Amino acid sequence: MGFDTRIDTFMGEICAILKIRCQDQDQAQEDLLQEGINMHSEKTTIRLVAVDMDGTLLHDDKSISDYTLDVLRRIVKKGVILVPASGRPIGGMKEAVLNNVDGIQYAICSNGAMLMDVPEEKSICETGIPTEKAVEAIAYLEQFPVAVYAHTDKGTFRAEGWEKTGLSEKYPYIRFSEGNVKDLGAFLRTSGVKVMKMGAFVLKDGLAQELLEKGSPIPGIVFLRTGDGIIELNSVDASKGNALCTLCKKLGISMENVLAIGDNENDISMLQAAGISVAMENAEDDVKQAAKFVAGHNEEDGAAHFLEEWVL
Asked: Cα separation of 282 and 114, whole Å?
C-alpha cells in the first residue's frame, strides 16, 4: 500500500470516528430536548411547588413584584400546593409572601429545620440543634468578627452589638427578631427555647469563605453558604430536601410530581429530591449542576416566568 493510500485510509477512519461522535452528540442533545418536552407535556401532573425566597422569588432588594405574587396566587387557586422554602424563620417569611398569598398551608423554615402549618401557626416537625452544640458553636464563631443569631421555636434572638453593624439596613428581614441578649449562649442554656438554626453575618471580607472551607468543628453541625458574607448553621439532619420529603409523604404526593426551584447551596437538597428541579440564572454553578432546568434571573422574575409556563 502506497503512502498516499495509507494517508487516505487514515483520514477516512478519522472522518468516520468524528461522524459517529457528532451523531452521538446530536442524539444526546435530542434525548435531552425530548426529556424536557416530555416533562413539559406532563406539567398538569405537578401537585406541589416548593420555592425558595431570597434570590429566587425576591429581588436583590428583598422586594417581590406584583407579577410574581399574581403567579403564586394563581398556582394556589389552581389547587397546586405552594410551599415557600426558606432559610428564614416563619416570621421573616410573612411580610414578603405569606401575608400576600392566601391559601398557603405549609412552609419550610430555617433551611428545613422546621416544617410549619401556616394557618395553625404550629410546627409539624422539627430538626433543631441541641442546646450544648449551639453554645459550642457560638463560642467558636465569636472568636471572629461576626454577628451571631439563633432562630428558635420562640423567635429569633441576636447577640448584643447588632445595632452597630448596620446589618438591619442591608438585611431588613433581620428586624423580625425578639431582640438582643447580652450573652446568647447563656440565654440559650437558661431560657428553654429550642434552637432550629443559627447564623453569622461576617464583618470581614473573605472570612465567610475561609470559615466555609474550614468547615464546622462541631460534630453534627454543618455550615452552609446562603448569601454573600452569611454563614448558616444547621443540624446535619436538617435540610429543605428532608423537610420536603416529610411533607410529601404526609400528603401522599410522589416526588415525581414535585417542582422545586432555588438559587443557593441550601436549596440543593430539595432540588435533588424533586422530580422537576430548577435553578435560577443567578445561582452558583453547583446549584445549577443539581438542577434539570435553569430559570431566568431573580431580578427579572425568572422563577415566576418558569412557574407560569410549567404549572399554569
From this structure: 26
Residue 118 in contact with residue 185, Cβ under 8 Å?
Answer: no
Return d(Cα 168, Cα 193) in angstroms, integer. Answer: 24
Edge to edge, the sheet with strand 195-202 lists 179-181, 155-159, 146-152, 195-202, 230-235, 221-227
Q: In this structure, are residues 274 and 258 in contact, taking their beta carbons and an 8 Å threshold?
A: yes
CA dist., res. 194 & res. 152, Å (int): 5
CATH class for the region spanning 45-126+240-311: alpha beta
Measure the CA–CA gap between 230 and 136, rounded to whole angstroms. Answer: 19
For 248-271, the pLDDT digits (tens) are 999 999 999 999 999 999 999 999
pTM of the model: 0.83
Correct CATH for 131-235 of 3.30.1240.10, 3.30.1360.60, 2.40.50.180, 3.40.50.300: 3.30.1240.10
Backbone angles phi, psi at 252, to 5 degrees: 70, 35
Please state the separation of Cα 304 from the chain's center in Å.
Answer: 16
Q: Say yes or no to pLDDT of 41 above 90.
A: no
Q: Which three cell numbers stand for residue 217?
A: 468543628
CA 22/CA 24 separation, integer angstroms: 5
Neighbours of 232 (CB within 10 A): 23
**pLDDT on residue 22:** 44
